[in-house]
Amino acid sequence: MQQKEKWGSKIGFILASAGSAIGIGAIWKLPYVAATAGGGAFFLLFLVITLFVVMPILIAEFIIGRSSGGDAILAYKTLAPNTKWDLLGKLGVIGASILFSFYSVVGGWIITYLFKALSMSLAGAKQAELLQEFSNTTANPYLSLGATFIFILLNVLVINRGVVSGIEKMSKFMMPALFILFLVLIIRSLTLDGAMSGVQFFLKPDFTHMTANTILITLGQAFFSLSVGISVMVTYSSYLDKSVSLPQSAISVALMNVGVSLLAGLAIFPAAFSFGITPDAGPGLLFVILPSIFNQLPFGTLFFVIFLLLFLFAALTSSFSMLEATVAPIMSSGVSRKKASTWMGILIMIMAVPSALSFGVWNDIHIFGLTFFEFADYLVSNIILPIGALFISIFVGYRLPRQLLQDEFTASSHFGKKMFIIWLFIIKYIAPIAIIFVFLSATGILKLF
């Protein structure tokens, strides 16, 4: 049974799609990578690669979804019947499931720390004390599992309500709120003594860092920041009508993603440098470094709560798309949305258990030298995402009819045939080569040569 739901508005689709792309990594990883890889020079390169290499694949996923009107699996069955191309959609659904399972663990940490901050239990704590607190929190199996399940449940409740009443409604609230909260933090951060040193560290162009390795890092970061490759955007665009321009929507999503990373850097680095701290990337930034900074500010707990809410919104809008991508194929077989989302929610909760326990009782269990959490992250980020993006490029560039592609690309758009030809050239030749380099680098194969 083909899903008949539609987005209520163009802005709803754009905000939901941007929310899907703007995840935790855009806030705790990308700003740090930028600051240590050339600052303004990195962002210029990142913007160019995002717009001219990665965004074309995002448009490709949009085209697959809207032209077929199907979910991540049904779309390929519709566009390439009696072939094995639906395996690409199945890979995407598996990837989204695994990604959601370990992503929910981090979402649970955010919820836990939100309660800790509101209860003032972190107020006045030094960095060493906060590091121990984070270690104790993540190692506690009951706390970790409980918070992870709550995060998954929040997603299930939203997906239960459908595309318009659930995903779109929450995205219309959370995405503007995210930007407003960022602006509050940036204003406070920039008014601190020594704040400009942090801005300079973050944004000063340093072209001496523009080595071949930096370009490769930037390329990989651009691919993974838009989450192309697991067909979540195929699912989202299947609810879209012909009145929306796909290229213009993709540009909006890409620019909002870059914009959030810029805002994150402007909120974090000035405050960090004001107190003589160089922030690292990863969970330690959110749960150790930032609380230690906010504890030194007047009304610091309030600002930390704001930052946690901001992270929670980013995490939720991103995870909505992961769960929806796994629920839609089940609905296509005739199962109701509520049953499908509940079943998948329970399955994801089971899948999340190993990752949630990776920091405590199962910390000594390894797969290829990695904990369950690390292995799930590596599997999705370094293998499933690049392979999915590569075959999406091949599918659109070489399998779909040229006329179908042109009709979808130019529908309700200012982009004409010339822009379509450029886009198609990128999809057929540039993107696959770039993805192969990212894949070989991420898996370590490139180092062998």
UniProtKB/TrEMBL annotation:
InterPro entries: Na/ntran_symport, SNS_sf, YocR/YhdH-like. PROSITE patterns: NA_NEUROTRAN_SYMP_3 (PS50267). The keyword Transmembrane applies. This is Sodium(Na+)-dependent transporter SNF family protein. GO terms for cellular component: membrane. It is a multi-pass membrane protein. The chain crosses the membrane at residues 12-30, 42-64, 91-115, 142-164, 176-203, 215-239, 251-277, 297-323, 343-363, 383-400, 420-446. Keywords: Membrane, Transmembrane, Transmembrane helix, Transport. It holds the Pfam family SNF. It is found in: Membrane.
